[in-house]
Amino acid sequence: MGVRFQKRVQVFPGVRLNFSRSGVSATLGMQGANVTVGKDGVHANLGLPGSGVSWREKIVSFPPGAVDPQSPARWPEGQGSNTPADSLPEIASAPLEQIASAGLAELRRLIFEAGAQRRGLKASLGEQRHLLKKAEVELAQARQWWRKIFLGPKIPLLEERVERFQTDVRELEQALSASAIDLDLDLEPAVLDAFVALARAFEDLRTSSRIWDITRQRDDGRPDSQDLQRRPVHFSFADSALLKCQMRAMMFGNANGSDMHLYPMFVLMRAQGDDFALIDPRDIVISYEAVSFVEDQPVPSDSRVVGEGWEKVTKTGERDRRFGRNRTLPTVLYGALSVYSRAGLNERWLVSNASFAERFARAWAAYQRVLPPLEGQGYFGNGAEL
Cα–Cα distance between 224 and 214 in angstroms, integer? Predict the structure, then answer.
């Protein structure tokens, strides 16, 4: 006989996200009685609907935390000689706990708890499905006519056990589908329109013939295959079983770190394990630069050849005549997208379709312009580049 499965399932509140000058705030709970989490702390809110009577009190304060500004890494200028790829400076973000935005800490906690619960439910569901399958096999064998002589009296008990396991599996499946954070995005019409335009630009961007993650790059030298290390990645729209949102996230593949998932009100970066960071989009700059890249691989179909270069060059960028078989290589126009923040976010991609990359960066800048500025600065200090 099996033991009936029982597990306590936490029901997570709906989360309503709002932009404000002090950051992204998250309202948890039902209308009239809820908790608002913002950059400056946690407030309890109580009101009587229709009466005009309300009460608000701060229950938790967040200490101020300042992070020294970090200058974004730039594309190299000038020419250079060949450099082993492993010796090039790495292009990577700071640890997740450093780049996370404090105002989204409570939402992060809820997502972490929901993720832990889902992992437990999945493990239990797999175990119960295995027990159900085993019980169904035993019941089918007992119903075979030559075994009914000996096992006939046990068939009702076996049927009862199968029904119990079926109930457990059904309840676990329902709990798994319910163990998610329901995100309600409170977007002004102008913000919504700008984000839709951003999503359309991303739709084009992700169709580029080739997209590379720049994992290493020399600080000085020409932008070619000898002075950087690049790895092919994909951009796509991504759904999350954990976060229920009206809009799909824009996913930027990251070869040497956490993939970047762009939602309307936050950016999620998740590590290989359970750790992740939530970042206010107003803390992020996305800049574009047209790059003339000396290409030693096949030229992508959506790129434009703008000149020629040499496989081996001198420090002044001229042909290195020490090499008799110094090949002529095409110079291709690519688009570079740099994503960074003052807290340490630092990622860079190379896109074969330069016009798509530029269009996305402009759409991002337009999206930022319609967001309410953060207190104490413009949208991003010096503003988005474009």
Answer: 11
CB 296 within 8 A of CB 312: no
Q: Which residues contact 90 (CB under 8 A, 6 or more apart)?
A: 215, 216, 256
pLDDT digits (tens, 9 = 90+) for 89-102: 888 899 888 999 88
- Strand pairing partners for 355? none
Lowest model confidence (mean pLDDT) among 128-137, 167-176, 293-302: 167-176
Strand partners for 267: 262, 279
The residue ranking higher by pLDDT, 140 or 103, is 140
pTM beyond cutoff 0.85: no
Q: How many angstroms separate the Cα of 230 from the Cα of each of 48, 190, 266, 338?
A: 58, 37, 27, 14
DSSP letter (8 states) at residue 124: H
Whole-number Å distance between alpha carbons of 110 and 385: 34
214 pLDDT higher than 60: yes
The pLDDT value given to residue 54: 37
Can you tell me the distance from the alpha carbon of 144 to that of 152, in angstroms, rounded to the nearest whole number? 10
On the question of pLDDT at 47 being above 60, the answer is: no
Helix (H, G, I), strand (E, B) or coil at 44: strand
- CA dist 55 and 64 (Å) reads 25
| Dihedral angle of Cα 350, 281, 373, 194, to the nearest 10 degrees | 70
CA distance 175 to 183: 18
CA distance 189 to 196: 10
Distance, in Å, from the CA atom of 192 to the CA atom of 264, rounded to the nearest integer, reads 8
